[in-house]
Amino acid sequence: MTTIVDPADRAQTPMVADEKLMLLGMLAFQRDTLRWKCSGLTPSQLAYQHAPSELSLGGLLKHLAVVEAAWVNLTFAGGIESPSWKSQHEGESEGWTFRTAGADSPERLFTWLDESQRVTELVVSKASTLDALSQDTPYDEPCSLRWILLHLVQEYGRHLGHADLIREAIDGTVGI
Questions:
Q1: Distances from the Cα of 91 to the Cα of 69, 74, 84, 108, angstroms
Q2: pLDDT in tens, the chain (176 residues)
Q3: How far apart (Å, rounded) are the C-alpha atoms in residues 84 and 5?
Q4: Helix and strand counts by DSSP (H, E) for the chain
Q5: φ and ψ at 168, to 5 degrees?
Q6: Spatial CB neighbours of 127, under 8 Å, sequence gap ≥ 6
Q7: How far apart are CA 152 and CA 98, in angstroms?
């Protein structure tokens, strides 16, 4: 389980690099920021929901693990590994990650995130180009690896704002 307890330990984004390294660097920084926001908390703190929302930090960990695996592993790579959370997903509707995360241990949540991120790194390292197209798609047309990585940067960034507010409500911890 990878946690970040000091924001200075987060991956640094390269200021000058090729497109693939820039995207991976930005994604790594955002992943580490999520880990930092969720580190050192008890199971009940990870399950804390700041009303009126049903979002929790544990729910964000689970959601982002599932989103990353769904886009990169399942959609782009065609399922090179079966995600360990997949059996829990069977028959569940949208939002299940947020509703069910409170029953998962912090170790399990971080393990799922680690797994998704490890598979992403493997898939991206083997891709010959960012223009490679997905093997599957939830839309009417395939999408490129570039689009998927940009979508993940957007998805993490969007939810980091939620994580900031929830963590501050839990124990006053602030910072970007």
A1: 18, 17, 16, 21
A2: 567 777 777 778 888 889 999 999 999 999 999 999 999 999 999 999 988 988 999 999 999 999 999 999 999 999 998 898 888 775 667 788 999 999 999 999 999 999 999 999 999 999 999 999 998 777 788 899 999 999 999 999 999 999 999 999 999 998 77
A3: 26
A4: 7, 0
A5: -60, -40
A6: 145
A7: 18
